[in-house]
Specification:
This protein has about 190 residues and is an all-alpha fold. The protein contains nine helices and no strands. Helix 1 runs antiparallel to helix 2. The chain is elongated, with a radius of gyration of 19 Å. The mean pLDDT is about 90.
Length: about 190
């Protein structure tokens, strides 16, 4: 019953996130986190403890994505550490994405890029070209926002052939849009 209640709150928080209802997302996530803490404090089997820790990490991740303050960053880092302790590399990459996004939202582009590059390396190690190319576009956008236009173009041009090989028209279009955004930022409208 406890995990069902936590799961319901997490589903509500994720729906809030999709609908940009950050206050509701934070409230649902914080309640889920509190319940997960209470559950973790009990005597649990190894598997039950793993489930409770995973739920705690999910709630912390959602709390972290709900804002731009130091408390939100702390939640994201704690979520990542929980997933590292659980040995879930894919979830660690997901948590790193939240941390990278937090730094990006706060204008700390170098730190954001560092975290996004960690995720990129993980996707490449997994042989996941599509996700790696998507990450390259994200990194390129952050580079553009930081004024590093050459690095931005390099990322987007590295991503584009992957999408072209895969025949993904939406990603091809998006990549061309963000390349154009770099040229517009450089005041080179003819190239955009």
């Amino acid at each position: 019953a406890d995990t069902a209640r936590i799961g319901q709150l997490l589903r509500m928080a994720e729906a809030d996130f999709r609908n940009w209802q950050m206050d509701s997302m934070a409230a649902h996530s914080e309640r889920a986190s509190t319940y997960a803490e209470e559950l973790i404090a009990r005597k649990l089997s190894t598997e039950e403890r793993r489930i409770a820790l995973r739920m705690k990490a999910r709630s912390l991740d959602l709390i972290g994505r709900s804002g731009t303050g130091a408390a939100e960053l702390k939640s994201l880092i704690e979520a990542k550490e929980l997933m590292q302790d659980l040995g879930d590399e894919k979830a660690v990459a997901h948590m790193d994405e939240g941390i990278a996004s937090w730094y990006d939202r706060n204008g700390k582009y170098a730190e954001s890029i560092r975290h996004y590059r960690t995720i990129l390396a993980w996707y490449k190690a997994q042989g996941d070209e599509q996700s790696a190319a998507e990450e390259l576009n994200v990194i390129g956008v952050v580079y553009r926002k930081s004024g590093a236009y050459g690095a931005a173009i390099e990322c987007h041009l590295e991503a584009l052939p992957v999408f072209e090989r895969g025949g993904d028209p939406a990603e091809i279009a998006w990549t061309n849009i963000v390349i154009g955004a770099v040229y517009r930022a450089q005041r080179e409208p003819r190239k955009s």
